[in-house]
Design brief:
alpha+beta; OB fold (Dihydrolipoamide Acetyltransferase, E2P); DNA polymerase, domain 1; five-stranded mixed barrel
């Protein structure tokens, strides 16, 4: 099993990269969260990897952090979730959001992730709630316990929604924070997303 790859970034796309290791190019599928952390081609990169073996193929899935890989592997353990869907889920929700959502049984938040319907969201909670609590994740204790302030969750939801709409994550964070500063701590998700979208529209 290939657990980690370090080499020169030969090419990158939102869903995959090619890493050149001593002249051998490894194609690695990645979530968007990892893509946004990548350096520019041809810089050196190091990725945690999961090796997926099928009868007709051997595929590599790469992650910027160990937490992403851990959750990817937990997601794959859920009935009906393969490596591609697990990667898509991590593209639609950050680790910092996914862990509290699973811990709290927040089916509504999980259903907002592209590719996750009601039944799958419920299955995720049932099968992963306890596993997430005992997994070795390098997150803050507050995030692991699902104790993040409601204000921060609303802001995280705005960022996630903007990313799902195709916005660059850095721009999404900047727009969400500007909306929070403009509206104050009491503003809910709906008000925040409207102002954030308007901010992004004015910039383009």
């Amino acid at each position: 099993m290939i657990a980690q790859i370090r080499g020169r970034l030969a090419s990158k796309e939102p869903h995959r990269v090619v890493v050149d290791v001593n002249g051998v190019g490894y194609q690695i599928f990645i979530p968007l969260s990892t893509y946004y952390q990548l350096p520019e081609v041809p810089a050196e990169v190091s990725l945690h990897t999961h090796t997926h073996v099928r009868e007709d193929a051997l595929q590599l899935f790469g992650f910027h952090t160990q937490d992403e890989q851990t959750l990817f592997e937990l997601l794959q353990g859920v009935s009906g979730i393969g490596p591609r869907l697990a990667t898509n889920i991590l593209s639609g929700i950050s680790v910092d959001e996914l862990v509290p959502a699973l811990s709290e049984g927040n089916v509504t938040r999980l259903r907002a992730v592209p590719g996750v319907g009601k039944k799958l969201a419920e299955r995720l909670v049932v099968e992963l709630r306890e596993k997430v609590a005992t997994a070795r994740l390098a997150q803050s204790p507050a995030a692991l316990a699902g104790l993040a302030p409601a204000v921060d969750r609303a802001l995280d939801d705005v960022v996630s929604a903007l990313v799902n709409l195709g916005c660059n994550r850095k721009e999404a964070i900047k727009a969400a924070e500007a909306a929070r500063q403009d509206l104050g701590p009491a503003a809910d998700f709906e008000k925040l997303i409207k102002v954030a979208l308007r901010t992004l529209s004015d910039q383009r």
